[in-house]
Amino acid sequence: MVLKLSGVALLALVSYTVAKQCTLDNFNATVGGHVQPLTPFSLPCFSSYNGNPVARDDAACAVIQANYSDPWLRTNSPSGYMNNQDEMWASDPTDQCLLDSSDPTDPLAYADADCRQGNLPSHYLEVQSPRDVIEAFKFSNCSGKQLVIKNSGHDYLTRSSGRDTLSLWTRNLRSMHYSPSFTPSGSKNTARYNAITVGAGVNFDEAYAFAQEHSVTILGGYSSTVGVSGGWVQNGGHSILSPVYGLGVDRVLEYKVVTPDGVYRTANEFQNPDLFWALRGGGGGTFGVVLESTHRVEPAIRFVSANIKFPANSTNMLPFMEIIVNNTLKWSQEGWGGHITGNTLVNVSPLLSVDQAEASLASVIAYARANGGSATIEEFTSWYSFYDKYVKTSSVAVGVTRFPGSRLISRSVFETAKGRSDLMSFFETIQSLGQTPYIPVVGPVLYNYTEGSTSAAPAWRDAIWELGSGASWAWNSTVPTRKKTIQSIQNTTAIIEGITPGGGAYSNEANLFTIDWIESWWGDNYEKLVSIKKKYDPFGLLSCWKCVGWKESQVADSSYAALL
Ligand SMILES: Cc1cc2nc3c(=O)[nH]c(=O)nc-3n(C[C@H](O)[C@H](O)[C@H](O)COP(=O)(O)OP(=O)(O)OC[C@H]3O[C@@H](n4cnc5c(N)ncnc54)[C@H](O)[C@@H]3O)c2cc1C
Ligand SMILES: *[C@@H]1O[C@H](CO)[C@@H](O)[C@H](O)[C@H]1NC(C)=O
Ligand SMILES: *[C@@H]1O[C@H](CO)[C@@H](O)[C@H](O)[C@H]1NC(C)=O
Ligand SMILES: *[C@@H]1O[C@H](CO)[C@@H](O)[C@H](O)[C@H]1NC(C)=O
Ligand SMILES: *[C@@H]1O[C@H](CO)[C@@H](O)[C@H](O)[C@H]1NC(C)=O
Ligand SMILES: *[C@@H]1O[C@H](CO)[C@@H](O)[C@H](O)[C@H]1NC(C)=O
Ligand SMILES: *[C@@H]1O[C@H](CO)[C@@H](O)[C@H](O)[C@H]1NC(C)=O
Ligand SMILES: *[C@@H]1O[C@H](CO)[C@@H](O)[C@H](O)[C@H]1NC(C)=O
Ligand SMILES: CC(=O)N[C@H]1CO[C@H](CO)[C@@H](O)[C@@H]1O
């Protein structure tokens, strides 16, 4: 067939070609005008933005000040991040737009200061459909504009922000669906699962309430606003019920995901199984933009909880930790999971009765009471009532700079006198530094894991604890203080690494300056993850800090470059 073009058709072809030019405006038009400039969360409090005068918005500023340490206002905003390091250009204390975390009404932070973009993306697109993401990948591919994915904004490693990037904001993908007989699409057997499917913007507060309505239990994090489908599950995802019911990655059945090659795919055991495996531990922001995830749920779970605490002083933390260390192996066989600090223990077990729980924890209960503290052992008949009473009320502080530095502690450490005494020396050291231990007891000890089914840190499979202390710097800290803080995180990490040679860490809550991150976070899974990454992201459109495929040379482009 000979193609004959009339003048009109030729004109149409030319304007079509012009319309396809790789510009932000044209991209904006293809996604319905939904691309917006991203302005810093606290901008309304400032009178200067990037060196130009702007009108301060007193009313909006007052709302931000009142909610500065509240996760909800942040998580519902495209520019809201929980941790200040996501927003700031860490190497330059003037390149940020932050309030005084200790007193958000302190004018010192905003009265004579310029609000600057720091590490924040330049633009964002509120994702509404797979097509939005496909267009964003095309635009990134032709323009070189880097992309990030921002869901809840909880990431400690700055993986959901980034200077000059276009942020794909997923928070408003909020569908939820319950099925008592879910079948993964393309399934080759008759297996049916009790499952909940959520849109990628749903957080745990919403998923827990939805599960409660259907009298089932969805496993999730100890935070209302962490997302179900994003960085949490794609990196491992721990719950205080994980000791018995497994990690988030163990329970996910299916993802709907747009891969950077521009294809909207289903990933499960039967379709794109390599991608499914990679999304079960290989990390968020790496293999594609997940739009939906389906999770196996349990019926309503009955369990006991223990809430033990006492007022800390300079001498009563170490003896408490010694009792804990000595009992950890026994407790791990009894299904206990939860959180322990130097003077608190809030743990649950679905395997014990109230009487058994009291007997199991008798030594710590007695210790807390002898130190002027209290112990409450209760029974719950559903996760939601526990969530309401304990999780909602104990959220980790946000609106601050916070660097976790945890490592997974395997059962072998507790099995030897040397391992136990190493742990005690670690507690002594951090006490001398004025820090307290932070221990999520979340290792999937009793979970019947299918070898090789996930790509999360292999160290998880022998772990009982995640152990860390963490560090932070003030909103207005100087460069020397920041350098010293990083050194101190490195030193603390080195001690825990010494206790767990060849072990690993949960990257979501690990030291973001970890040197052997490949080995620690992925171990033997790494090479295979890199090849899957190349298959689905052949042009390298997704990249984030120490994510699969990241290159050491990228430090130079990061907010931390001048601090390391
Ligand atoms: C206060 C607090 C409490 C926490 N509690 C727990 C806990 O109990 N258990 C636990 O395991 N962890 C916990 N974490 C760590 C948490 O799992 C990580 O911060 C995780 O990265 C959060 O994922 P998100 O999607 O909610 O956050 P975001 O910061 O929005 O995203 C995190 C990462 O996931 C990627 N991502 C997000 N959405 C998608 C998507 N749709 N597709 C592909 N990639 C995506 C982003 O690009 C980024 O790399 C906690 C963190 C904080 C700050
Ligand atoms: C995208 O288009 C909309 C609608 O025309 C417009 O309001 C918005 O400012 C545009 N975004 C950018 C970044 O120019
Ligand atoms: C990215 O660009 C390459 C050419 O550089 C092209 O072959 C490929 O199809 C593009 N991918 C997408 C998703 O647009
Ligand atoms: C812990 O166990 C060690 C033996 O490994 C023992 O010496 C010590 O007294 C025990 N401490 C407590 C508080 O039970
Ligand atoms: C800490 O508290 C315990 C119990 O109340 C007490 O015996 C001990 O003397 C206190 N230590 C200090 C240094 O105050
Ligand atoms: C663990 O899982 C395997 C494979 O799914 C199964 O054969 C085995 O019976 C399970 N073991 C227990 C203790 O449930
Ligand atoms: C930092 O802010 C605090 C108030 O949060 C103030 O007391 C202190 O002087 C400030 N430090 C510097 C170096 O400006
Ligand atoms: C870290 O450890 C090194 C080597 O032991 C030491 O010189 C340095 O002072 C420590 N720094 C901090 C901030 O703890
Ligand atoms: C949007 C939002 O979260 N607003 C909250 C800010 O803080 C005030 C006072 O604590 C709350 O009442 C608002 O709901």
From TrEMBL:
<dbReference type="GO" id="GO:0071949">
    <property type="term" value="F:FAD binding"/>
</dbReference>
<feature type="domain" description="FAD-binding PCMH-type">
    <location>
        <begin position="117"/>
        <end position="300"/>
    </location>
</feature>
<keyword id="KW-0560">Oxidoreductase</keyword>
<dbReference type="Pfam" id="PF01565">
    <property type="entry name" value="FAD_binding_4"/>
</dbReference>
<dbReference type="InterPro" id="IPR006094">
    <property type="entry name" value="Oxid_FAD_bind_N"/>
</dbReference>
<dbReference type="InterPro" id="IPR036318">
    <property type="entry name" value="FAD-bd_PCMH-like_sf"/>
</dbReference>
<protein>
    <recommendedName>
        <fullName>FAD-binding PCMH-type domain-containing protein</fullName>
    </recommendedName>
</protein>
<dbReference type="InterPro" id="IPR012951">
    <property type="entry name" value="BBE"/>
</dbReference>
<keyword id="KW-0732">Signal</keyword>
<dbReference type="InterPro" id="IPR016166">
    <property type="entry name" value="FAD-bd_PCMH"/>
</dbReference>
<dbReference type="GO" id="GO:0016491">
    <property type="term" value="F:oxidoreductase activity"/>
</dbReference>
<feature type="signal peptide">
    <location>
        <begin position="1"/>
        <end position="19"/>
    </location>
</feature>
<dbReference type="InterPro" id="IPR050432">
    <property type="entry name" value="FAD-linked_Oxidoreductases_BP"/>
</dbReference>
<dbReference type="InterPro" id="IPR016169">
    <property type="entry name" value="FAD-bd_PCMH_sub2"/>
</dbReference>
<comment type="similarity">
    <text>Belongs to the oxygen-dependent FAD-linked oxidoreductase family.</text>
</comment>
<dbReference type="Pfam" id="PF08031">
    <property type="entry name" value="BBE"/>
</dbReference>
